[in-house]
TrEMBL record, chain A:
Primary role: Lyase that catalyzes the C1-decarboxylation of 4-hydroxy-3-methoxy-5-(all-trans-polyprenyl)benzoic acid into 2-methoxy-6-(all-trans-polyprenyl)phenol during ubiquinone biosynthesis.
Residue positions binding Zn(2+): H166, D167, H170, E182
Lineage per the UniProt record: Eukaryota, Fungi, Dikarya, Ascomycota, Pezizomycotina
The gene coding this protein: COQ4
GO terms assigned for molecular function: 4-hydroxy-3-methoxy-5-polyprenylbenzoate decarboxylase activity; zinc ion binding
Pfam families, sorted: Coq4
Cellular component annotations (GO), alphabetically ordered: extrinsic component of mitochondrial inner membrane
Protein name: 4-hydroxy-3-methoxy-5-polyprenylbenzoate decarboxylase
Domain of life per record: Eukaryota
Keywords attached to this entry: Lyase, Membrane, Metal-binding, Mitochondrion, Mitochondrion inner membrane, Ubiquinone biosynthesis, Zinc
Chief subcellular location: mitochondrion
Mode of membrane association: Peripheral membrane protein
Family that this chain belongs to: Belongs to the COQ4 family.
InterPro entries reported in the protein's UniProt record: Coq4, Coq4_euk
Record pathway: Cofactor biosynthesis; ubiquinone biosynthesis
Automatic annotation (TrEMBL), chain B:
Reactions the enzyme catalyzes: a 4-hydroxy-3-(all-trans-polyprenyl)benzoate + 2 reduced [2Fe-2S]-[ferredoxin] + O2 + 2 H(+) = a 3,4-dihydroxy-5-(all-trans-polyprenyl)benzoate + 2 oxidized [2Fe-2S]-[ferredoxin] + H2O; a 2-methoxy-6-(all-trans-polyprenyl)phenol + 2 reduced [2Fe-2S]-[ferredoxin] + O2 + 2 H(+) = a 2-methoxy-6-(all-trans-polyprenyl)benzene-1,4-diol + 2 oxidized [2Fe-2S]-[ferredoxin] + H2O
FAD-binding domain: residues covered: 38-457
Membrane protein topology class: Peripheral membrane protein
GO molecular function, a single term: 2-methoxy-6-polyprenolphenol 4-hydroxylase activity
Family, per entry: Belongs to the UbiH/COQ6 family.
Pathway(s) per entry: Cofactor biosynthesis; ubiquinone biosynthesis
Source species, domain of life: Eukaryota
Enzyme Commission number(s) of this protein: 1.14.15.45, 1.14.15.46
Protein name, entry field: Ubiquinone biosynthesis monooxygenase COQ6, mitochondrial
Organism this protein belongs to: Penicilliopsis zonata CBS 506.65
Length: 285, 512
């Protein structure tokens, strides 16, 4: 177990060559020595123990360093089965738009979502808001890694879709990517998608400063619970088709309230602190 | 013949000797005072009623009893019923081996059109929610060198009715009167005739030609008295109301959708050759099981128990979409099926493609077990219909001079295909009871004679009906909760225990 954890957890990417499993062998029980063929390109079949080790390892790793997006993604995949990812897929299959997404399998990359086009959209449209958010946070849609540990190829796509849409959730809610904003969004997503990783991410709360934690509990958690439970399944939004829609209208349709703007709050607090400091300086002078 | 019967002989003969002329004569001379007396009057000419008549006529002991049958439908139509070989009626029943044995005993089996009858040797039943399955066949009990043993026999009800009618006709028309296209307008207790028999405790029926028939004006109502009145008159039995027998039960709020389907040729040849299989998949999210039961020439009959809304939706679909839905119901997940049941029917063309497109797409992403039926390729025109599913059980089957058989006594959920078999079981038991009463010089209508029938059948029918009801409830719990887990565990365990499975199959086989 410890050996496995050491092998797998630090860098999941190292495992990729394992997919070339010997196919000539007679059908044998699935073990570390006899890995079945991948179900889709990039798929890495895992045994139960491997999956568990991967979940624990990636959980610990991502708690130590929350900037390790790959570990968070791995944690998401390792804990999505059983049940949760199937539930999310069934939620998509129960909805006309969700079915269309599963059938078309659109991918969100900088080539399918050209930023110049998004920036040219009218003010307050979903696409423009998304582009503005990407610019503000300095991220790109291409930073999302491939799903590799989910056995069902359709569920793997659902996970991929969730991952790629995550930035749209950020954009629509306006939450930033630093830990506080990320936590608020993860809480919201957990109640909306029920993906266990989003719930587990809330353990990162231990990393918040006391003031931030207090703000999280009084401001963002209540928002996340309210909106997460009241809103429609966000996975069923065909983002490629609503780019030109008014973002307020979309929020109303999905039944999401806009959360308090974290960057604004931070700026305000910083200004207050500065003023306080100046006043203190004046007094001492 | 019994003592009481010989004492009444003069009165019986005065009216029966003159055959058809009797009613008119009596009407003109003495207005309907003395009803004609029959030993057994059976109300209802369905499989149960006709089966009873055929059974009584087939036994040498009871063949001389004076019997009458009252049926509101036109039995001439049933007699001349005929369909081209590639068409099948949508009212089809499965006969268990013991029902088949009974039909053979009364000589009706050889009168069945065997080209329209299909045996099957295997049955696959599985849970659409969890995928756990059970298969029924007699492979455990037969050697590999024998032909596989039949699990059940599919026959159209019309074919069975026609065979029973010809069996009854073959027995001659002595002491037999069939009132076709005739309804029972009243049943009451007779009166004590001063110059005749005391019929005050006997049921006396007034029968008149059905309003629909053109002869209604010409033929006057006829009164007949019954030593034993048998109610084979269905769920709303007038005989049962006359006897004041309470009935318990409930409506399932489900409809059974039936249809006659054509199947594609299966790629894999069956082993042994000619082996046919029946398929049943439980669809907890849609309210009941879907079953595909084999008919000759690669046809099959469908019975799909589902909610009235779904049934109405299915019936409103054009043929291509209906076929896609049936194929989907044996293959796709509950989520897909629930979605497809709500798909809008935009226009004929568009909609046909829609259901089929959904099915084709979802099949690529749904792993299939290896026990699914062949693809349905066609649905017979005007064969899609539905009927409400109900549970009824009469508190008793007998009352002085009255006995209930078939649907008049019990109506059960069709998921095990046992309804008609229970009815034929009643018929076998009641005819034996009558035979016993006749050989021992007892009055066939006496409660003491009938007790035997009630004892034999009430408990047996209650058991089968209760099991079907339990299965219905168990397989109506949607989702992957503890109930689904429990029923799947149970099914898998039974599937792996040949003794338990053999016991259950023998119960189902002898359930009739």
């Amino acid at each position: 177990m410890s050996v496995l954890a050491r092998q797998i957890a630090p860098s999941a990417r190292l495992l990729t060559p394992v997919t070339t499993a010997p196919a000539c062998l007679l059908p044998r029980h699935f073990s570390v020595l006899n890995r079945p063929q991948p179900n889709y390109p990039g798929h890495i079949p895992l045994t139960f123990i491997e999956r568990g080790a991967l979940a624990v390892g990636s959980a610990v790793g991502s708690l130590i360093n929350p900037r390790r997006g790959d570990l968070i993604a791995t944690l998401g995949e390792a804990t999505a089965t059983p049940y949760f990812i199937y539930r999310l897929r069934d939620a998509m299959l129960s909805d006309a738009t969700g079915r269309r997404i599963l059938r078309d399998r659109p991918r969100i990359t900088s080539s399918t979502m050209p930023l110049p086009y998004l920036r040219s959209l009218p003010e307050n449209s979903v696409g423009r808001t998304y582009a503005a958010w990407l610019d503000r946070e300095g991220v790109s849609p291409d930073t999302r890694s491939q799903v590799q540990y989910i056995d069902n190829e359709e569920c793997a796509y659902v996970m991929q879709r969730y991952r790629e849409c995550h930035d749209f959730y950020h954009a629509v809610t306006g939450l930033p990517i630093f830990v506080e904003g990320e936590l608020a969004l993860k809480a919201f997503e957990f109640l909306n998608t029920l993906i266990p990783m989003t719930g587990l991410s809330l353990f990162a709360m231990v990393r918040l400063k006391p003031a931030e934690r207090e703000r999280f509990f009084s401001l963002h958690l209540p928002w996340a619970v309210r909106s997460g439970l009241a809103s429609k399944e966000l996975i069923n939004v065909y983002w490629e088709e609503v780019l030109e829609k008014n973002v307020d209208e979309l929020r109303r349709e999905l039944n999401i309230e806009a959360p308090p703007d974290l960057r604004e709050i931070r700026r305000m607090i910083r200004r207050q602190q500065k003023e306080e400091k100046q006043r203190m300086g004046q007094q001492t002078a | 013949m019994s003592a009481s019967r010989s004492a009444l002989r003069p009165y019986v003969c005065s009216s029966c000797r003159h055959g058809v002329l009797a009613p008119r004569r009596r009407f003109s001379s003495k207005p309907a005072q003395n009803p004609e007396i029959y030993d057994v009057v059976c109300v209802g000419g369905g499989p149960a009623g006709l089966g009873l008549l055929a059974a009584l006529r087939a036994s040498p002991v009871t063949s001389k009893l004076k019997v009458a049958l009252v049926e509101s439908q036109d039995l001439d139509k049933a007699r001349s019923w005929d369909l081209p070989t590639h068409e099948f009626s949508n009212r089809v029943s499965s006969l268990t081996p013991s029902s088949v044995a009974f039909l053979r005993r009364i000589g009706a089996l050889e009168l069945l059109d065997t080209d329209r009858v299909q045996d099957y040797q295997q049955m696959q039943v599985w849970d659409g929610e969890t995928g756990s399955k059970i298969s029924f066949d007699w492979a455990e009990e037969t050697s590999p060198f024998e032909d596989p043993r039949t699990v059940a026999t599919m026959t159209e009800n019309a074919n069975l009715v026609r065979a029973l009618l010809s069996r009854i006709e073959a027995s001659g028309d002595e002491n037999l009167k069939i009132f076709s296209k005739t309804t029972v307008s009243s049943i009451e207790n007779g009166s004590d005739h001063p110059d005749g028999p005391d019929l005050s405790a006997w049921p006396v029926l007034t029968v008149a030609p059905s309003e629909a028939s053109p002869a209604s004006t010409s033929e006057p109502p006829v009164r007949i008295a019954a030593r034993l009145l048998v109610g084979a008159d269905g769920i709303n039995s007038p005989v049962r109301s006359f006897a004041d027998i309470a009935t318990e039960g409930w409506d399932y709020n489900r409809h059974g959708v039936v249809a006659t389907l054509a199947l594609s040729d299966s790629e894999a040849p069956t082993f042994p050759a000619g082996m046919r299989t029946a398929f049943q998949r439980f669809l907890p999210a849609l309210g009941g099981p879907i079953a595909l039961l084999p008919l000759p020439n690669n046809h099959a009959t469908l019975v799909w128990s589902t909610t009235p809304e779904h049934a109405a939706y299915l019936k409103s679909l054009p043929p291509n979409a209906f076929i896609s839905m049936v194929n989907a119901a044996f293959r796709l997940s509950m989520t897909d099926l629930k979605y497809m049941m709500k798909m809008k029917r935009v226009g004929e063309e568009e909609e046909v493609n829609q259901h089929d497109a959904e099915l084709t797409w979802r099949l690529q992403h749904t792993p299939q077990p290896n026990h699914i039926p062949p693809m349905v390729t066609g649905v017979q025109e005007r064969s899609v219909a539905s009927f409400p599913l109900r549970f009824r059980h009469a508190s008793t089957y007998i009352s002085p001079r009255v006995a209930l058989i078939g649907d008049a006594a019990h109506v059960i959920h069709p998921l095990a295909g046992q309804g008609l078999n229970l009815g034929l079981g009643d018929v076998a038991s009641l005819s034996n009871t009558i035979e016993y009463a006749v050989t021992h010089g007892m009055d066939v209508g006496d409660l003491l004679s009938l007790e035997r029938y009630s004892t034999e059948r009430w408990g047996a029918n209650a058991k089968v009906g209760g099991v079907c009801d339990l299965l219905h409830k168990l397989y109506n719990v949607p989702g992957q909760g503890p109930v689904a887990w429990g029923r799947s565990l149970g099914l898998n365990v039974i599937d792996r225990l040949p003794f338990v499975k053999g016991f259950l199959m023998r119960q189902a086989e002898g359930g009739a």
